[in-house]
Structures are given as C-alpha cells and as structure tokens.
C-alpha cells in the first residue's frame, strides 16, 4: 500500500500494518479503517503471511475513532433498530472487524506506545497479544459523552479484566498505565521505549515460527473454553488435540524431536 495514513508492508512471514496519522493522534478515519480491513483480509487469505502486527507512528497509538470522519454514526441515526444494525455491520462498526480478528487462526499482535483510547482499545482487545511500551496508557472515555463502550469495551473487557476493573475504566472514566494494564490482564508484556520496536519484532518472529495448525487449534480451543464449564472445556481440549494428532505438522515435529532426544542426525 502506498504511503499515507495507513501503511502495509510484509517482512518475511509478518504483515506489518502501521497507523500513520500522528498529527490527529492517530484517530481512526475511513482510510485507516479500510487499511485495517485490507490487512485483515490479507492475513486470512495469504499463506505466506503468518502474523499480523498492528502498530502506530508518533506519541499516541490512537485516540480512537475520529468523530468528525465518516466512521462516526450519522447524527440522524436515532432509530434503535437501525442503530443496532449499524453497530453490527455498518461502516465504522468495530464489531465485524473485531469478530474477524478473533476468528482468524493466526496470531494478531498490537503494539501500543502512548495513549490507546476508546475504539482503539476496543479493537485491541480482540487481538491475540497486546504489547506495551512503558509509556502506554489505556482508557475508555465514552461515558463522558453520555454513552458506554459498545464495541467490545464492555463485553471483552469484562472477560479479560473482570467487572471490578471494567467499572473503573468504563464508569469512573479512569485511565490505567502500562503496569496496571498488565496486572489486570489488558496487556501481556511491557518493554522500555528504547527497546520497544526490537522486542516487538522479536516477539513477532517467535510467533511466526509456531506451527500454524497448532496455533489455530489452540486459539479456537481457548476461545471456546472461556465460556464452558470445566468438563466441557476438557472435551474441547480432547477434540482439538485429536484433530492435530493425525496431521502431518505434528507427526513431522514429533519425529524430529525424538531424533534430537536420541542423538540421531
């Protein structure tokens, strides 16, 4: 993709999507939105791509949706049923994109520096891995405008951080720094700013080396198990492992491991 507000490049098996609108605090507009969808479709369809990394230029990861752009719901969209339809699949709705991120059986990584707010955080909660620079901070300011986070910032945040911290971010309108975000389950790891890019790249390289069928099965099993009781979650594990056990990927890797352990060449 040409240079602009959103850039896509491929480095080996990693597709790197960069939000590049720092003069507007990387707020999402239609061009950025279409770029996110383009990167997502390429991840899903291109066998040469194993990992999607979403990052941003500038001091902000993103301030969220640009309310002056085409992504904001129309002012006359006041009918509840029409609004629900827009929320589910309209231009600017995070629901369809977030659901797609969760459904794709490949690693999706987001790398946050500085503030990650509103819709940017809601979309990030759909990723498999969230990595933070030590200067990152997180917030969901919708209640200050008379709303609530309605694109995963309520439902997904409750699953990740629990009702206690969802109240803190969503109702008290409090922001959390990177350390607290890791403690409550919003981010997985934190790096010093001077090492951030190198650490993120190293993590993505490691993800690209993971056997793809195993990752896809594991991702689905985790998602299903989160909403099941213990007995049914065990059944999900059995089904996932059973599907992998006869596959070429696992057989070849197990054979190679046995040879290494036995000292064969």
What does this structure look like?
The chain has 265 residues and is an alpha/beta fold. It folds into 2 domains: 6-208, 2-enoyl-CoA Hydratase, Chain A, domain 1 (Alpha-Beta Complex); 212-262. It has 10 helices and 9 strands. It has helices spanning 30-45, 80-89, 94-103, 119-124, 155-171, 178-184, 196-208, 212-225, 230-245, 248-262, and strands at 6-11, 14-19, 51-56, 108-112, 115-117, 129-133, 137-139, 176-177, 189-191. The strands form 2 sheets. It has a 6-stranded mixed sheet with strand order 1-2-3-4-6-9, sandwiched between helices. It has a 3-stranded mixed sheet with strand order 5-7-8. α8 (212-225) runs antiparallel to α9 (230-245). The longest helix is centred in the middle third of the chain and has 17 residues, at 155-171. The radius of gyration is 20 Å and the shape is globular. It starts with 5 loop residues before the first strand and ends with a helix. The model has no long low-confidence stretch (mean pLDDT 91).
What is the distance, rounded to the nearest whole angstrom, between the alpha carbons of the first and last residues? 44 Å
**Residues in helices, as a percent range:** 40-55%
Task: Assign an overall shape.
Answer: globular
- What percent of residues are in strands? 5-15%
- Classify the fold: give the CATH topology of the largest domain: 2-enoyl-CoA Hydratase, Chain A, domain 1
Element string (H = helix, E = strand): EEHEHHEEHEEHEHEHHHH
CATH class of the largest domain: Alpha Beta
Largest sheet: 6 strands, mixed
What's the CATH architecture of the largest domain? Alpha-Beta Complex
Rg, Cα atoms, Å? 20 Å
Compute the average pLDDT.
91
């Amino acid at each position: 993709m040409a240079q602009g507000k959103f850039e896509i490049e491929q480095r080996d098996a990693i597709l790197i999507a960069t939000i590049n609108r720092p003069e507007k605090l990387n707020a999402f507009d239609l061009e950025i939105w279409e770029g996110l969808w383009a990167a997502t479709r390429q991840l899903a369809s291109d066998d040469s791509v194993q990992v999607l990394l979403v990052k941003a230029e500038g001091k902000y990861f993103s301030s969220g949706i640009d309310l002056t752009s085409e992504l904001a719901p129309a002012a006359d969209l006041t009918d509840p049923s029409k609004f629900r339809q827009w929320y589910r699949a309209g231009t600017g709705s995070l629901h369809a994109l977030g659901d797609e991120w969760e459904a794709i059986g490949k690693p999706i990584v987001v790398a946050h520096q500085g503030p990650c707010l509103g819709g940017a955080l809601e979309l990030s909660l759909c990723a498999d891995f969230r990595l933070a620079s030590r200067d990152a901070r997180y917030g969901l300011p919708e209640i200050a405008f008379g709303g609530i986070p309605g694109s995963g910032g309520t439902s997904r945040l409750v699953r990740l951080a629990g009702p206690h911290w969802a109240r803190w971010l969503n109702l008290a309108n409090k922001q959390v720094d990177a350390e607290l975000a890791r403690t409550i389950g919003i981010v997985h790891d934190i790096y010093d700013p001077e090492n951030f890019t190198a650490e993120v790249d190293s993590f993505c390289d490691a993800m690209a080396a993971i056997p793809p069928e195993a990752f896809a099965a594991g991702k689905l099993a985790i998602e299903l198990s989160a909403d099941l009781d213990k007995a049914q979650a065990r059944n999900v594990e059995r089904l996932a492992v059973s599907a992998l056990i006869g596959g070429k990927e696992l057989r070849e890797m197990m054979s190679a491991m046995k040879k290494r352990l036995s000292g064969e060449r």
